[in-house]
Design a protein that fits this description.
The complex is a heterodimer of chains A (about 525) and B (about 525).
Chain A lengths: L5 E3 L5 H9 L8 E3 L5 E2 L4 E3 L4 H7 L5 H17 L4 E5 L1 H16 L13 E6 L5 H4 L5 H8 L2 E2 L2 E4 L1 H4 L5 E4 L5 H6 L7 H20 L3 H37 L8 H13 L3 H13 L4 H14 L5 H15 L4 H10 L13 H12 L7 H9 L4 H8 L29 H12 L6 H4 L6 E4 L12 H6 L2 E7 L4 H14 L2 E6 L5 H6 L7
Parallel strand pairs in A: 1-2, 4-12, 5-6, 6-11, 11-12
Antiparallel strand pairs in A: 3-4, 5-10, 7-8, 8-9
Helix pairs in contact in A: 3-4, 9-10, 11-12, 11-13, 12-13, 12-14, 19-22
Chain B lengths: L8 H13 L1 H24 L3 H21 L13 H9 L5 H4 L15 H4 L1 H16 L10 H23 L4 H10 L11 H13 L3 H14 L2 H9 L2 H14 L2 H11 L2 H15 L5 H16 L6 H30 L3 H5 L11 H11 L11 H7 L4 H14 L3 H7 L1 E2 L8 E2 L5 H10 L4 H8 L5 H11 L2 H11 L2 H10 L5 H12 L8
Antiparallel strand pairs in B: 1-2
Helix pairs in contact in B: 2-3, 2-7, 4-7, 7-8, 10-11, 11-13, 13-14, 14-15, 15-16, 16-17, 19-21, 21-22, 21-23, 23-24, 23-25, 24-25, 25-26, 26-28, 27-28
The chains are: A alpha/beta (about 525), B mainly alpha (about 525).
Subcellular location (chain B): Cytoplasmic vesicle; Early endosome; Late endosome
Keywords (chain B): Cytoplasmic vesicle, Endosome
Organism (chain B): Phallusia mammillata
Chain lengths: ~525, ~525
């Protein structure tokens, strides 16, 4: 008889136990919890690498995974001290906060004897800002993720990049000094840097030709290895940049030019040329462009305009089903449930349809308004995106030139067209030490907000020096995933304001990965 | 809710048995018993009992702690100050804290589980009571044998107490205690919550703690132990529980139950979508006919009833008619291909079947192989266009691409030509704009002359110039520069024309020298 052991990551659920029990295989010592916790992807990014959470929390309203999120925060606090200031926005964030408190007391984790090393914790729900991940990314790392897909900090460059038969897997993190220099740059600033670097390396190689034997020896033993490594990574990144350039100017059968797409996205963000945008999306459908691309633009249209007009919604859906298959009726339904692609409620309550709606609603039992439906209602606040972006000045006034070479704010990650909403919230929360004065804005965002302040920064009183240091360190937790563009923006913010920002997330996402978790694939 | 589905009662009974007789717990007990016996021996030999008892306690504690994580058993954390009987009990029982945190006084009605116990653990019961007896007596030292009778009565009374304690143990621990165990991953029993109020309280507390796992556990426990309609009523009044329950049902694949729940909640759209998905999934490998009949049932039972789903209903009707068309066309074409008589299938072999493909894919296929067929035929592109209300633009995009692939230039020209009318001669016109036409053609790898022909038709000169330069339609580009009277740019453009193309270079130079053009620069 063989003995088995089951390791449950990150923990054993009641359902798992009862299934094992029902199958008659439950036994002593069968199950162990294996709580992996955070996986460090870089010096400043830790991730649970659980992309399924997005779907289960924000579409199904199932909180089971939030336990894992809270557990990871508890773990961090045991190591680095209890974080005194906590700010959060969103339904899930609120739950995580309360779960963290419960877990801390119930696991009996001792208060760390260390002084806290992290001063602020900002917890944000993904559904607070779906707009940012829906935009095409234009930082180098973001483009790599959009085009080649980065998995757990590793990218697989195919033959078109390596220009050989083989494909190469490369780690992308700050250990590669060249990469850490270009990763967060706007793409237009990557190529000039790479070519300057190439010249430098060439010069270093050339130096060796004119060297004395003795110097040559030290050169080989000390510098050559580093040069070779840099040379290798330089070749790869130049290859990758070339592929990206191709994407930018040359569409294919399945995809329009990136430039056109960017133009449409910027119009959507600004709220200008609405008809042109709808027409472009319609063309994407007509030409059967990549489904996720089409869907991404559709969702962006819906999110920035608080839902499509019924006429547009029905028209686009009808065409979409023709082009990509009727089964995507299910995809549309999922996206509606998640609040990503909705039909705006028209003001006319007299229509037959809304009466029917009312009739159906009154028949439902009791106050059975679930999380799913209530979050939908929150998103349908009219023109919330316009209001919020005006109040937080996320979108520059049209006509202002943006200097991408020397960016002055976080908007550079989208070519100066848009400052990610989440990053602006983080900036404000840390600066103001709470949400005070932002009620006007937060009211338009889904979910509730909260703040817990235990250590106002050293402005007034003189706290211990370590506390002062800690007040410059912030942990930002994205529930539901973060994009590389947001990471880049937060890194920029940290550098600009002299903070140290650590990013914790449940997964690294981009528009395509986010949407594909809602797409139904029945054939 | 018509069909009442219930988990069979034996399961929960069995679960209960498994808990009480569960080997993981039993083994733990034996260890504890050994400990007890050890301590008895020590007491007897030493004569003094205070120290060994605390040692025993320590060892129990350590023991339990060391097992705590490994065996998913729990950590005994009885405080040292508790009275000896309690302490002994705690070493024995599965719930050390129980006696002290007891909140529900045991009532005879809630005690069935106790019946399993006494026979099984007679031995330990004896050793226990002796331990207790000694423990109790350590305060007033035994001086002589005369107190033996006294001791006897003491033992009897303690036995009674113990039986009582045993009964207590079958009562449920406090809700918060259980939920805490669920949250930190310790073993727990829900079967002891017998009354409906207790069950409801368990669920409510789980919801308040936001512990999804506990919410699911409590909900499923209620489903297994309450009558169907009572369970429904309790569930429906708790939206969070509903969400979790639905998520569970979806994961577990209990589609019928999920459908029933959603319908009861009035979430008809979701319920209908669920059935639609189930129908597609279950017919994925069958013939289109079977799927079509499944979809028809789906509409009849789940979609038709709700007017709000009218759009989706008509989409499914379209899907059915498309499937019928696809299977007819597919049958016809594969038969034709097999005969080997039809040229087009020889020169352009069919790649994959069109069954279950989207409408536009089918339209493309029909444009490719069946262009120009009469509308009466199912394979005619025109008939698809009319039946599915394909928009003019959509049709153009698809037809131009398909015809370009087939290299049917004449047909493309006809498609883009507005016939002669009384007032105007025939002319080229494209609803999608000629820039799009050229784009589609170039992406479908059309040859240069075809591109040039339509490139010249692009409506705005700027766009025309852009496309002409990009696609190297030299003549169109030169003509457009001339049209814009931009001599400077034309001179620069001359350099871009390759040396090999002498003809075009000549044409360009001629234009530059031309006297008739009024250059703007």
């Amino acid at each position: 008889m063989r003995a088995y052991k089951i390791f449950m990551v990150p923990r054993c659920l009641h359902v798992c136990e009862s299934i094992l029990e029902q199958e008659g295989v439950f036994g002593p010592n069968l199950i162990e919890d294996l709580n992996i916790g955070f996986i460090p992807l870089d010096q400043d990014i830790i991730s649970l690498e659980n992309p399924a959470l997005l779907n289960s929390v924000f579409m199904e309203g199932d909180f089971t995974w939030l336990h894992t999120v809270a557990h990871s925060i508890v773990g961090l606090q045991t190591t680095f001290g209890t974080i005194p200031n906590v700010y959060g926005q969103g339904h899930a964030a609120k739950i995580v906060e309360s779960l963290t408190n419960t877990l801390t007391s119930e696991l009996g984790e001792k208060k760390s004897p260390l002084q806290h090393q992290i001063g602020h914790l900002v917890v944000l729900d993904r559904d607070v800002d779906y707009v940012t991940p829906l935009c095409s990314q234009v930082t180098y790392e973001g483009l790599l993720d959009d085009i080649f897909e980065i998995k757990c900090g590793v990218v697989d460059f195919g033959p078109e990049v390596t220009k050989t038969e083989k494909s190469v897997k490369t780690m992308l993190n700050s250990e590669d000094s060249l990469f850490s220099e270009i990763r967060d740059r706007h793409f237009t600033n990557v190529f000039p840097y790479l070519s300057a670097r190439a010249k430098e390396i060439q010069a270093n190689y050339d130096k060796s030709h004119s060297m004395e034997l003795k110097d040559l020896k030290t050169f080989v033993s000390s510098e050559l290895k580093g040069l070779k490594q840099e040379h290798r990574s330089l070749t790869l990144h130049i290859g990758a940049s070339e592929v990206i350039m191709k994407h930018k100017t040359k569409g294919s059968l399945r995809r329009g030019d990136l430039q056109d797409i960017l133009h449409i996205e910027h119009s959507l963000l600004e709220g200008s040329d609405f008809r042109e945008c709808v027409n472009y999306i319609e063309e994407c459908i007509h030409r059967q462009y990549d489904m996720l691309l089409t869907l991404r633009l559709l969702c962006l249209l819906s999110c920035t305009t608080s839902g499509l007009l019924p006429k547009d919604y029905n028209n686009l859906k009808h065409k979409f089903l023709h082009s990509y298959g009727f089964e995507h009726m299910l995809t549309f339904f999922n996206l509606k449930k998640a609040g990503l692609l909705t039909e705006a409620q028209t003001g006319k309550d007299t229509s037959i349809e809304s009466n029917l709606n009312k009739l159906a609603d009154s028949r439902t039992v009791g106050s059975a308004v679930s999380y799913v439906t209530s979050s939908l209602a929150a998103l349908q606040k009219k023109d919330w995106f316009r209001t919020v972006s005006k109040k937080l000045s996320l979108i520059p006034k049209p006509g202002t030139e943006y200097n991408l070479k020397k960016p002055s704010d976080m908007a550079y990650v989208f070519g100066g067209a848009y400052t990610p909403l989440t990053c602006r919230l983080v900036e404000q929360a840390i600066q103001r030490q709470g949400w005070g004065g932002l009620e006007d804005v937060l009211r338009h965002l889904p979910g509730s907000n909260f703040e817990k302040l235990e250590a106002r920064s050293a402005k007034a009183g003189k706290s211990a020096s370590s506390g002062e240091q800690a007040s410059k360190v912030a942990l930002v937790y994205f529930i539901g995933g973060v994009t590389y563009s947001e990471v880049a923006a937060l890194r920029f913010l940290a550098k600009q304001k002299g903070y140290r920002i650590l990013i914790a997330t449940t997964a690294i996402i981009n528009g395509n990965r986010m949407l594909s978790s809602f797409v139904e694939t029945v054939r | 809710m018509t069909s009442v589905k219930r988990q069979p009662a034996p399961v929960s009974q069995q679960a209960e048995d498994e808990y009480w007789g569960g080997s993981s717990f039993k083994r733990f007990n034996f260890d504890e018993d050994d400990n007890n016996e050890d301590s008895i021996e020590k007491i007897q030999f030493d004569g003094s009992t205070a120290t060994p008892l605390s040692q025993k306690y320590e060892s129990t504690r350590n023991h339990a702690t060391s097992y705590g994580h490994g065996e998913r058993s729990y950590v005994a954390d009885t405080p040292l100050s508790s009275t000896p009987p309690n302490r002994a009990m705690s070493a024995r029982s599965h719930r050390p804290n129980m006696p002290k945190k007891q909140q529900f006084p045991p009532s005879p009605a809630t005690l069935p589980a106790a019946n399993h116990e006494p026979v099984k653990s007679n031995n330990s019961q004896h050793s226990m009571s002796i331990t207790e007896a000694v423990a109790v007596h350590d305060k007033k030292p035994i001086t002589s044998a005369t107190s033996l009778a006294q001791l006897e009565t003491e033992i009897n009374s303690l036995r009674r107490q113990l039986t009582q304690a045993k009964r207590d143990r079958a009562a449920a621990p406090s809700v918060s205690d259980t939920l805490k165990r669920v949250m930190v991953g310790d073993p727990y029993v829900l079967e002891l919550y017998k009354s409906k109020d207790e069950k409801a309280k368990l669920l409510d507390s789980a919801i308040n703690r936001h512990d999804g796992n506990a919410v699911v556990a409590a909900t499923l426990f209620m489903r297994d132990t309450l009558k169907r309609d009572i369970f429904s009523k309790e569930l429906m009044s708790r939206p969070v529980a509903v969400d979790h329950y639905c998520a569970y049902l979806r994961e577990a694949g209990e589609i019928d139950e999920l459908h029933e729940t959603l319908s009861a909640l009035g979430r008809t759209e979701e319920a209908a979508m669920l059935k639609y998905k189930q129908c597609l999934a279950s017919t994925a490998t069958t013939t289109p006919e079977i799927r079509a009949s499944g979809l028809k049932d789906c509409i009849k039972y789940y979609f038709d009833a709700d007017i709000r789903l009218a759009n989706d209903t008509s989409a499914i009707f379209e899907q059915i008619s498309m499937m019928e068309r696809q299977s007819a066309v597919e049958d016809g074409d594969s038969a034709a291909e097999k005969t080997g008589q039809v040229m087009v299938f020889k020169s352009h072999p069919r790649k994959e079947s069109i069954i279950h493909k989207p409408v536009i894919d089918t339209l493309f296929y029909c444009c490719y192989y069946h262009w120009g067929e009469a509308e009466g035929l199912l394979s005619s592109p025109t008939s698809i266009r009319n039946q599915h209300k394909i928009s003019e633009k959509q049709f153009m995009f698809t037809a131009v691409a398909a015809l370009c692939r087939m290299r049917r230039w004449r047909d493309i020209e006809n498609l883009l030509t507005v016939p002669r009318t009384l007032f105007r001669s025939s002319r080229l016109q494209a609803v999608i704009g000629f820039d799009r036409v050229v784009d589609v053609l170039s992406k479908n790898l059309a040859p240069g002359d075809a591109l040039a022909k339509y490139c010249a038709e692009i409506e705005t000169s700027d766009k025309r110039l852009e496309m002409a330069v990009k696609l190297k339609c030299f003549k169109v580009a030169i003509d457009t520069f001339v049209y814009q009277r931009d001599r400077q740019q034309l001179m620069l453009y001359l350099d871009q024309i390759p040396q090999a193309n002498q003809h075009m270079r000549q044409y360009c130079s001629n234009q530059l020298r031309s006297q008739e053009i009024k250059w703007k620069n």
